[in-house]
Design goal:
With 430 residues, the chain is mainly alpha-helical. Helix content is 64%, strand content 5%. The protein has helices at 7-59, 89-100, 107-114, 121-131, 148-154, 171-182, 192-196, 209-240, 245-257, 262-276, 284-308, 312-320, 325-353, 357-361, 382-390, 396-426, and strands spanning 64-73, 139-145, 186-190. A 3-stranded antiparallel β-sheet has the order 2-1-3. Helix 1 packs across helix 16 (396-426), helix 12 packs antiparallel against helix 13 (325-353) and helix 15 (382-390) runs antiparallel to helix 16.
């Protein structure tokens, strides 16, 4: 005869079923959570890849420049030896172009023909003559930069199969350009001007070297001021300052300053460094001072975290063998905390490199064509240069903007990679 389960057994079975049901729900919830997390990561990587692909797709062509070969006769009648620097070099360019197309007549057609060549070609000839005055009186084959509209057309950014009224270049200009191409006088070469020149109103003459040098000067000033001051403040607050109302107030303010919008520091720099102290506008010196104020809270917080990560036994052992408190900090604690401090500093510098809002407030948005040679010379920085080019109407500045973003991202990746390498190289596990 079958015996029915007891009440205790039935209760245990029901409890086990409830537990299994709850476990199944939790397992399903865990699988859904993992799926959502993995989906978020994949989407983030996808959007990031699309962003990089868009930037690279628009900007890679800026590293190449269309050039046209001209046979230039350095006419002694135009190049007077006593005034080589102020001679009419554009006249030499126009004469060389006219020799290639002697059949072109009429002022309008000649203007269209000369428009194929960049207005900066004259400066190139001047540089050649000043470097070697012996070429005066000779005919030399010179590769000069083409106009930005020619460059954009040959790169495929301007369509040629639309009516003439909808194109930037006329039918005559396209015919002349095709003829030059058939004669082997058109090439696409490395755009050295973009990598070695300063800013320009003409897209084919604009370069990023001035902004790179300005960024370098600004970051040197920022690093020279923010690192020692930030580390010293962190050491004092963590190792020497007593725990009282004043230190608590300082800590709260440091944490709050780390979250202040960067443009507020620009307003502070405008009021203090420019209006009160009278320092030069648009100078890397002022930019470095403003960025120092902005990065100090980040460096102090990172340095304090690195000091807190050092085990108390290190301090106790140093004090136990007779070291003073200063010797304990300098010889034992700081060397162990330095990798974390350097990592935080590099991350803070990377943030400073990408900032533009505070620098706009101190005048670094000005058009600067010359390469700065010191921290007090007028200069701009890469983020501001990108802002200026993005606001320009010419199509050629679109690729310049994307190429400058590529350069800026390269610097940021290198700096963050350096922070990771430093952390991995010097990190100690306790």
């Amino acid at each position: 005869m079958n015996k029915e389960p007891s009440a205790d057994t039935q209760a245990a079975v029901r409890t086990l079923d409830i537990v299994k049901s709850g476990l199944n729900r939790r397992y399903r919830a865990e699988r859904r959570f993992r799926f959502y997390g993995l989906s978020a990561i994949v989407l983030s990587i996808l959007f990031l890849a699309l962003l990089f692909a868009s930037i690279v797709g628009k900007g890679y062509s800026a590293f190449w420049q269309t050039e046209i070969k001209l046979d230039v006769f350095f006419d002694p009648a135009v190049l007077q030896k006593e005034a080589l620097i102020n001679a009419d070099y554009p006249a030499l360019i126009k004469a060389a172009v006219q020799n290639l197309f002697p059949e072109v007549d009429g002022r309008q057609d000649r203007r269209l023909l000369n428009a194929l060549i960049s207005t900066g070609a004259g400066y190139q000839l001047r540089g050649m003559v000043l470097k070697d005055p012996g070429i005066v009186g000779r005919t030399v084959s010179v590769w000069v930069a083409a106009d930005d509209e020619v460059d954009m057309t040959l790169k495929g950014h301007f369509r040629r199969d639309v009516p003439e009224a909808e194109r930037r270049m006329s039918d005559k200009q396209l015919a002349w350009l095709d003829r030059l191409t058939a004669e082997g006088r058109v090439e696409r070469n490395l755009n050295t001007t973009f990598l070695s020149g300063g800013d320009s109103r003409e897209p084919e003459l604009a370069g990023i070297w001035g902004a790179v040098v300005g960024s370098a000067f600004t970051l040197v000033i920022t690093l020279a001021l923010s690192f020692p001051i930030g580390v010293a403040a962190a050491v004092y607050l963590e190792e020497f300052a007593g725990k009282n109302r004043w230190t608590d107030l300082i800590e709260v303010n440091i944490n709050n300053l780390a979250a202040v919008p960067s443009i507020v520091f620009g307003l502070l720099g405008l009021a203090v460094f420019l209006n009160f102290f009278g320092l030069p506008r648009s100078a890397p010196l002022v930019g470095g001072l403003v960025l120092t104020l902005m990065t100090l809270p980040t460096i102090i917080i990172a340095s304090r975290s690195a000091l807190q990560a050092v085990p108390p036994s290190i301090r106790e052992a140093a004090l136990g063998v007779g070291a003073s408190r200063m010797q304990m900090v300098v010889h034992h604690v700081l060397p162990l905390a330095l990798p974390g401090m350097l990592t935080g500093t590099i991350i803070g510098m990377a943030r400073a490199l990408g900032e533009s809002a505070p620098l706009l407030m101190i005048g670094m948005v000005a058009f600067i064509a010359d390469i700065p040679h010191g921290v007090t010379d007028p200069a701009t920085v890469l983020p501001v240069q990108i802002y200026l080019w993005a606001d320009s109407p010419e199509r050629a500045f679109v690729e310049k903007t994307s190429a400058a973003i590529m350069v800026l991202l390269t610097f940021l990746v290198v700096m963050n990679a350096g922070a990771i390498v430093l952390r991995k190289r010097f990190e100690r596990r306790w």
